[in-house]
Specification:
globular; mainly alpha; about 180 residues
């Protein structure tokens, strides 16, 4: 992309490369690289990629327990969704719920995640249903200590993950089955 002078393509390639950092749990490095990409997107006026990066940065800040950064990127995501008439990126949906969860409002977090199956159906995004099952089982098992209920949710999630031939969430859900 660099040789072709395609700055947007360079940003897009960088955004895709962030997933490797996420999968390895290298959140600080992900935030550093994503913020540099975010500034490049803003500099060239590429609001669509700015939206994608905001949506990626919000959950990264949330997982890093840095609520101020998560809140700032969620606000900017909201603004860009309105301005562009765009669909909310899935990463930002999970970040919204995680922020509620990080504040200790478990019932509100469960209600937030409970919206995902319908959104998944409407947007035809099965990963949102899987995110609902994984996050709900984590709260029910690890924070509410309702092991039988959480086991059933995690089991459903593992089965759904197998149907999707997906492994990331399955590993997390399998861990819930062991508790």
């Amino acid at each position: 992309f660099g040789e072709a002078g395609d700055a947007g393509g360079q940003i897009e390639a960088g955004l895709i490369a962030l997933e490797t950092l996420w999968s390895r749990g290298e959140i600080a490095e992900l935030i550093e690289r994503a913020e540099a990409l975010y500034e490049r997107a803003r500099a060239i006026g590429d609001r669509v990629r700015e939206l994608q990066l905001c949506a990626r940065l919000a959950p990264s800040y949330s997982v890093a327990f840095r609520p101020e950064g998560a809140a700032a990127y969620l606000r900017r995501t909201d603004e860009l969704v309105r301005e562009l008439g765009a669909r909310r990126p899935p990463w930002s949906r999970t970040a919204q719920c995680r922020e509620v969860r990080n504040r200790g409002a478990l019932s509100a977090a469960l209600a937030c995640y409970a919206e995902f199956p319908e959104i998944a159906r409407v947007e035809q995004d099965p990963q949102l249903r899987l995110a609902h099952l994984r996050n709900t089982s984590e709260i029910v098992v690890m924070e509410r200590r309702r092991y039988v209920d959480g086991y059933e949710i995690a089991r459903e999630g593992v089965e759904f993950s197998e149907r999707l031939n997906e492994t990331w969430n399955r590993k997390e859900l399998t861990g819930m089955l062991a508790l």
